[in-house]
Design a protein that fits this description.
The structure holds two protein chains of two kinds.
Chain A: H1 13-25, E1 30-33, H2 39-51, E2 54-59, E3 63-68, H3 71-76, H4 80-90, E4 97-104, E5 109-110, H5 114-117, E6 121-129, E7 142-145, E8 151-154, E9 160-166, E10 171-174, E11 186-193
Antiparallel strand pairs in A: 1-9, 2-3, 3-4, 3-5, 4-11, 6-9, 6-11, 7-8, 7-10
Helix pairs in contact in A: 1-4
Chain B: H1 8-20, E1 26-29, H2 35-47, E2 51-54, E3 58-65, H3 72-82, H4 84-94, E4 106-110, E5 115-119, E6 128-133, E7 146-152, E8 155-163, E9 170-174, E10 181-183, E11 192-199
Antiparallel strand pairs in B: 1-9, 2-3, 3-4, 3-5, 4-11, 5-10, 6-9, 6-11, 7-8, 7-10
Helix pairs in contact in B: 1-4
The chains are: A alpha+beta, B alpha+beta.
Amino acid sequence: MAALMLNKAYTDANVWHLIREDFRKGKPKHAVLKAFFDKNRYDALRTELKRCARNNVKIADRYSYSIIESRKIKELFNSSEFLEFISFIAEKKITHLEIIIREFGWKDYTLLHDKTSADSGLKVFFFVPSIDEWDYFWGGSIVYKTSEGKSLVFVPSENTLCIVDKRKEDEEFTQYVNHYVGSERVIMIEAREG
Amino acid sequence: MVPHSLSPLLVKKLRAEFAGSIPFRHAFIESFLEEDSAQRLAKELEAELFEEKDSDLFQFRQTQDLHYSKNEVIKDFLTYLESKEFSDFIKGITGIPVKQGAFDVSGSLYIDTDYLLCHDDELEGRKVAYILYLCKDFTEQDGGALALLNEENEKPGEAGKRYYPQWNSLLVFEVSRKSWHEVEEVIGNKKRYAIGGWLH
């Protein structure tokens, strides 16, 4: 995978400023960017993910999902253009992102866990669902329970990038995926400040 | 509220079942209440107010603490749970010294897509968990099984045993560090009503 190839809307400096303003307002700070990559890049990314092997992992009281390994995806989300973009939005210098690629289908989930819940720092999620219209009622959303007693919900949506500056007190989990999902699945590329 | 015959012979049989059960100590008792009592209790439970519960771990509906119920049939059932007869029955099966009248109790309802993921129930004071199913029999196609999980390397593993809800059956298990269990997702239109809680 070569250049970052963002959707043209996200290459405008004014748009970067608008996104940053929006990001600042959230508690926790966050932004959701639809149609993030241009079509060719997104299609290439999907093709790469399809090609990769899956490894099911489950510890019933913590999580259930499949892990995907892809050097190309890790490189893409650590490209200088992507790091520059993220650093601008988050207003902090990000030099490296730890990448984990998870795939969720029926019966998959993550639970709150003391160790991961106490994490803080910048997190980026990129969704690649197997279907254009992922239904919220299937589950699989990433939920933040905030210290303000609210829920911040990121519903899987194709080619969508979510940026969150997680505070220590924010609790994060991925909702259980129920049987209405059928054979559909969603890949979540998670990048965190490393 | 009349339980079905709790003869010494039945208690002896259940004690053996409890002691030898895997993945952790439990017993399953069919036709727990007299049929008429079970029918009346189920009808009144369905009339209780159920509040939706939702977290990372679960999605289901629950009544208030049934100690606060004003319903006479439910109060009658709680009187039975408070009785020496019931605590002696539990002690007889489990050998665990539960205290008469010390218990939590609430009603639960699982409908399509509801679930309760893996946990161990362990909390100070809880000795024995109990659940009385007051719903139509469930099959594999309906989901809703109570899955008792094996322990593998001190972590919860695969289901060692599954109990699909069965009308008027009572399931009891010892609460411990390794009593890992879950309620599998309900699939379809059947409603999984039950009364359950913990004995202290």
